[in-house]
Each structure stands twice: as structure tokens, then as C-alpha cells.
Write a structure and sequence with these properties.
Elements (H helix, E strand, L loop, with lengths): L1 H16 L4 E2 L8 E3 L4 E6 L5 E6 L2 E6 L5 E6 L5 E10 L2 E18 L1 H4 L8 H7 L5 E5 L17 E3 L10 H14 L3 E7 L11 H6 L4 H5 L5 H17 L9 H5 L11 E4 L1 E2 L8 E2 L2 E9 L8 E5 L5 E6 L2 E7 L5 E4 L7 E9 L12 E2 L6 E4 L4 E3 L2 E8 L6 E2 L9 H7 L9 E5 L11 H16 L5 E4 L15 H11 L6 E4 L16 H14 L12 E7 L2 E6 L6 E3 L9 E4 L5 E3 L1 E5 L3 E5 L8 E4 L10 E3 L8 E2 L14
Parallel strand pairs: 2-8, 8-11, 8-26, 9-11, 26-27, 27-28
Antiparallel strand pairs: 1-3, 3-6, 4-5, 4-7, 7-8, 9-10, 12-24, 13-21, 14-25, 15-20, 15-24, 16-19, 16-22, 17-18, 17-20, 22-23, 29-30, 30-35, 31-37, 32-33, 32-36, 34-35, 36-38
Helix pairs in contact: 4-12, 10-11
Length: about 650
């Protein structure tokens, strides 16, 4: 018995000392491999052991290196399947079933690429017909890392059907659907996204360090999690107090301050999580203040205050008087007696002592549906759903930070891109930029850097197609300026890189929803560019872009690319809108416009007798922009000048 025990112990020890055969997690059942290219397959095994890969008539034997890494490269094959892939090493064996050869595209970016099919227009129809589509998707799990990872943390290839397709990328699905229809092959999507992320998090540390513009900032980034916490704390206090010292106020002290006291606090909004207000990753208590202006007729009236769906623990004061202490519940209405309010400026102060309970992901902040956030009197209501709030963390109470993307740079590259290299693929579709609008001018550098970085890692100048950010926010004119317009300009300038393409989407945005629900047109426009640029198919078009402007005779004449067959104003009025002109004084005025010679636009304005600059759709949400080519693609926003914008000089740090 003792001898048997010793033998079992030695066998177990031997197994523990031997690395088990494995492949990178991107390989699995139902995967799609890229046709007509070399196909690298890699993984891990016992060091120096032979590994044999068998697939579709090819058999390749390689040797694991001293650290157990192995890689085999299959020769190019045409589309087809299903096949089995078999990998063996000594007695270890792996088999992947239902493998297809087709077209593989990486779908990456932030929330508008991440947005799932079940949350957009057309889902029910697509769900009902999804099993007929030869589309498969691999979802890379969310993870951040300060060092490049050897492998992703999980994931599986899923075939589109009624039970799975709702979780597919909506943009990716509609793009793949068009490709499958035209190319008659299986389409594989590798879905690696994270909402709200900045472009710097998707670039490798090495590329950032070598960048003349970004290298200094990258070299100052933390290399430990303690360092990340210190960085976040420094940024938070700088954002909250600027160069002034941090003051540990109590709620009682703040409650007695006049409304004007809070004017120097950071702006906030309700409803909305603090995560979206500049307090990224902060986990702790905080104050929110709202000034309410009333005339004397309301001082003797009772009222009702509603914080909508807010269910946090909180303390509330009005003009220094405590009116609520304890947990709120969703849809709770607080009755306020006559005499609560005073004439002039009233200060409503709330200290949020806990995060939102339902939903828990919401974190700190006031939660409501918008129309249920108010102060109501018998004859009128005051809407509190706006950006006229002020916010401040309570630094006197314990707080911490959750580690998330944007805490530093390159963390998503490390964990959600690097482990995918060198998986063979046709190209990348990218939808990101909303989180970089504050540094839009620098995006002229960072976005091309990302493309060059990824291409250098894959050792291939693959097609890189991207979505120009859509319409969201205000309708300010060029005299105010637009960071969103400047970001779109930076994206358009990136087309100078070879083998890149852009889908213009300002016509299908939503001024009040940063996640517009029409994703079918986005996918179709990306696919049309792929057909022209990547697959060299005739009969597809794309959005016209600014080519030149001639200023003579008191007006501007604008020409465009991709407008050979003509332009049209796409509304019932029949004339182009969304244009502005400026003279030498750099002051812009809204201008009239008409289509001339079929594919040019003449722009004029009585206030600008000698124009020197013309702009189109130069605002956050250019909902009045109505100029299209006759094929139905919108004109890309543009400006003819290069005058300093509102984001120039603002940089990642």
C-alpha cells in the first residue's frame, strides 16, 4: 500500500511539472480562419516537445521552445468548411470542431462598436433570420493590464442564431451581413471593445514612448497599481480644486454657504453617474449642489421634490436647513412645507453617502428618467434634469478608486489586443473617438499612431476602416467652436494613411443619445468601403468629402470627391443647409447655399461680402446638414480654413 502511494505521488508530481498542451484561447470550436493568407496557430506545451497541427490536408510539426511556446503556420487556403483542427503532442490531443475558412475582421473601439444588436433598430427582424447568416463572433472579455498578456482571459466563438445574435456587435453584424451577401463566405468577427475608452488605452506602451508628441507623457505613466492610485488621486484633486488646496468640508458647513459659493466647483449633471462627469474611477461619498431661482410668490407655497429613481443613502439641505436624512427609494417624493424656499437664489445641497443601489453599476450620482427629476408647485414645475448642477467629492470620508480603462494608457492594448497577435485577419473596423473629443486636435497624432502600431505588430498594412463620430450634443456655431467637429476633422485627416476608409454618420446620429440606434446604415457604409477598397468590387460608393473652395465674386464655390454623379439636398425644402462663411475678421455667419453644375455648391452671405473661409456641419450635432450625393451618402463635415480650434493645445497627460 505504501509503495502504491509513493508511485501515485511521483506520477502526480511528474504531471504537475509537465506543461499541458494548449492553444491560445482565440482558437476553438466554430472559429473562422482567414482564407487566402498564411494562418499562424500558437499555444503552449512542454518545453522542447514536438507539436503537430493537422488541418484541411496540411500537417505541420514544430518544436516548443525552452519556455514552452509553439507556433505553426498553415499555408493559404480558399474558403470552405466545416473542418476539424487537430493538435497533438505526445499523448496530449486537442480537437477543434466546425472550423470555417472565410473572412475575419476585428471590430474594436468604444461603446458604439460595443453596442449589441439587441439594443438597436431592426433587432427582432435580424434575430428571426439570424440562423441563415454565415456570421460568427468571438467576444474578447474585458480586462486591463499594466503588462502585455500572453493570452486573453476567455471567450468562445459563437454562431449567429436566435439565441446568440442579440449579443453580437450591431455595427459588426450589419457589416458582416453585407460581406456575406456579396462574398458568399463565412464572416468571423473578433469583438474587442470597451465603452467610454480613450484611444491611448488601445496603443502599445512602446509606440507611445517612441512618439515625439506623446513620449514624455507616456514615460511619466505609472508602472504599478499603487502608482495608478496616486495618479488618479492627483488628477481628481486637480480637477476638483484646480491649484487651490483641498478643503475637507462637512455637509453642515456647506449647507450654510450661499448659492454663489459653489460656482467654482466642477460642473455636474443630473441624471448621470459621476463616472461620466470627470470623477472617473472615484468610489466614495460626494456632494451635489443646484441653485434654484424663485420669485417671492413661491416662498409661501408648499412643494414636492422628486429625485426620480435615486435610491442612495443621502443627506439633503435647502438653504442650510436639513430636509432629508437617510435612504431614498426610487420614485420617492419629498413633501416640502411652505417657507422652505426664499426669494432669489436657493441652494439645494445633497450629500450622496452611498452609490446607487439599483442598478448597482450606476455608482455615485442622481438617477432618473429625466422627466421625473423636479420641484413641483401647485401651478408649475422646475425641471432639475440638466447640467446646472455642481459636484465635489467628499475627501474627508474614506474613498478609493476602481481600476478601469483610461486610468492610464495602453492597458487595453496589453490585455485585449496584444494576445490576439498574430491571428490572421482581413482587416479592422473601428468606432471610437467620443472619449477623445476634449483632445481632438491631438487625435490627429494618436489615431494614426494606433493604426501604425497595430499594423507594425501584425507585420501587415491591413485595411483599417473607421466610423466618423456621429451627431450628439448642441448646435453651436463656429464662433463658439466644436470639439466634436474637430475630432471628426482629425478622423478625416487620417485618411492620408494608405488603405484606410471612413464612414460618415452625422446624418444618422441623435443629439440626445450618444448611442444612436441606427447601426444598420453604419455597417452598410463600412461594408461599401470594404467592397471598393479591399475586395475591389465595382458599383459601390461612399460619402463625398471636401476637395477645394474657391473664393471669388463674393461667394465660395466648393468642390467634393465622390460627387461625380451629382449632389442633392435631402429634405422637402430642396436647398443645402448647414453652411457658414467668414471673412478676414474670422467671424462666422450662417450662409445660403445652392447646388451648381450638379456637383458643386455655391455659398454666400450678405454679412460676408468677401469670404475667405467656408464651413459645413461644424457643430456637435449638425442635424440641419442635408447635403448628400445622389447615391444617398452624406457629405462629410469640413472647414476650408486652418484657424486655431478650441482643443488645440489640450493633450493627454
Amino acid at each position: 500500500m505504501k509503495k502504491l502511494f509513493v508511485m501515485l505521488f511521483l506520477s502526480a508530481a511528474a504531471l504537475q511539472g509537465r506543461a499541458q498542451l494548449s492553444a491560445a484561447k482565440i482558437f476553438g470550436d466554430h472559429m473562422v480562419l482567414q482564407r487566402n493568407q498564411d494562418i499562424p496557430v500558437w499555444g503552449w506545451a512542454e518545453k522542447n516537445k514536438k507539436v503537430t497541427l493537422s488541418f484541411n490536408g496540411q500537417a505541420i510539426t514544430v518544436k516548443a521552445d525552452e519556455t514552452g511556446n509553439w507556433k505553426a503556420v498553415l499555408k493559404p487556403m480558399t474558403e470552405g468548411g466545416p473542418f476539424e483542427m487537430v493538435i497533438t503532442s505526445d499523448k496530449d490531443k486537442m480537437v477543434f470542431h466546425d472550423v470555417m475558412l472565410g473572412e475575419v475582421w476585428i471590430c474594436s473601439g468604444q461603446s458604439n462598436m460595443e453596442l449589441q444588436l439587441k439594443n438597436v433598430l431592426g433587432y427582432k427582424f435580424e434575430q428571426a433570420n439570424s440562423a441563415q447568416q454565415p456570421i460568427r463572433q468571438f467576444s474578447v472579455p474585458h480586462k486591463i493590464s499594466l503588462e502585455p498578456e500572453k493570452d486573453i482571459s476567455g471567450g468562445a466563438w459563437l454562431k449567429a442564431d436566435t439565441g446568440t445574435v442579440g449579443d453580437f456587435s450591431a455595427v459588426g453584424y450589419y457589416f458582416a451581413k453585407q460581406l456575406a451577401k456579396q462574398l458568399h463566405v463565412t464572416i468571423g468577427l473578433i469583438y474587442t471593445n470597451w465603452g467610454g475608452t480613450m484611444v491611448e488605452d488601445w496603443i502599445s506602451q512602446d509606440a507611445l514612448l517612441k512618439s515625439p508628441e506623446l513620449g514624455a507623457a507616456a514615460s511619466a505613466l505609472p508602472t504599478t497599481w499603487d502608482g495608478v492610485s496616486a495618479r488618479l488621486d492627483k488628477h481628481l484633486k486637480s480637477y476638483s480644486y484646480g491649484k487651490n488646496p483641498v478643503v475637507d468640508y462637512t455637509a453642515d458647513q456647506l449647507a450654510t454657504q450661499p448659492a454663489s459659493f459653489f460656482n467654482d466647483w466642477p460642473k455636474g449633471n443630473a441624471p448621470g453617474p459621476w463616472e461620466w462627469m470627470g470623477f472617473y474611477s472615484y468610489r466614495g461619498a460626494g456632494f451635489m449642489q443646484r441653485t434654484v431661482k424663485l420669485d417671492s410668490s413661491y416662498t409661501k407655497r408648499s412643494s414636492v421634490l422628486s429625485l426620480g429613481l435615486t435610491d442612495a443613502d443621502l443627506v439633503m439641505y435647502i438653504n442650510g436647513k436639513l430636509v432629508k436624512n437617510g435612504a431614498f427609494s426610487g420614485n420617492y417624493q419629498l413633501d416640502l412645507p411652505a417657507g422652505t424656499w426664499k426669494p432669489g437664489e436657493n441652494s439645494l445641497l445633497i450629500e450622496l453617502l452611498s452609490k446607487q443601489k439599483n442598478p448597482a453599476w450606476y455608482g455615485t450620482g442622481i438617477n432618473s428618467a429625466g422627466n421625473d427629476l423636479y420641484i413641483r408647485f401647485a401651478d408649475t414645475s422646475i425641471n432639475l434634469a440638466d447640467n446646472n448642477w455642481r459636484a465635489m467629492p467628499d475627501f474627508a470620508k474614506p474613498y478609493h478608486f476602481d481600476y478601469l480603462p483610461n486610468n492610464t494608457a495602453y492597458m487595453l492594448y496589453n490585455s485585449m489586443v496584444s494576445p490576439l497577435i498574430p491571428y490572421a485577419m482581413a482587416g479592422v473596423i473601428w468606432y471610437q473617438g467620443e472619449s477623445n473629443t476634449s483632445t481632438a486636435y491631438q487625435y490627429r497624432t494618436t489615431f494614426p499612431l494606433l493604426i501604425a502600431d497595430w499594423r507594425s505588430r501584425w507585420k501587415k498594412d491591413f485595411p483599417f476602416l473607421f466610423v466618423q463620430i456621429s451627431s450628439f450634443g448642441g448646435f453651436q456655431d463656429s464662433n463658439v467652436g466644436s470639439s466634436w467637429a474637430e475630432l471628426r476633422e482629425a478622423q478625416a485627416m487620417t485618411l492620408q494613411l494608405p488603405n484606410t476608409g471612413m464612414a460618415v454618420t452625422t446624418d444618422i446620429g441623435d443629439p440626445v443619445n450618444i448611442h444612436p440606434r441606427d447601426k444598420a446604415d453604419v455597417g452598410i457604409r463600412l461594408a461599401d468601403k470594404a467592397f471598393t477598397m479591399t475586395y475591389h468590387l465595382p458599383g459601390f460608393t461612399e460619402s463625398p468629402l471636401f476637395k477645394s473652395a474657391d473664393f471669388s465674386g463674393g461667394y465660395a464655390t466648393v468642390t467634393f470627391t465622390n460627387a461625380d454623379h451629382g449632389l442633392m439636398a435631402k429634405d422637402k425644402y430642396g436647398y443645402p443647409k448647414g453652411f457658414e462663411l467668414a471673412g478676414a475678421d474670422h467671424k462666422f455667419y450662417f450662409a445660403q447655399a445652392s447646388i451648381v453644375d450638379g456637383n458643386k455648391v455655391k455659398v454666400w452671405c450678405s454679412q460676408v461680402p468677401q469670404p475667405v473661409a467656408v464651413r459645413y456641419a461644424w457643430t456637435d450635432a449638425p442635424i440641419d446638414a442635408n447635403l448628400f450625393n445622389v447615391e444617398g451618402f452624406p457629405i462629410g463635415p469640413f472647414r476650408s480654413d486652418n484657424w486655431k480650434g478650441i482643443t488645440e493645445g489640450k493633450k493627454f497627460e
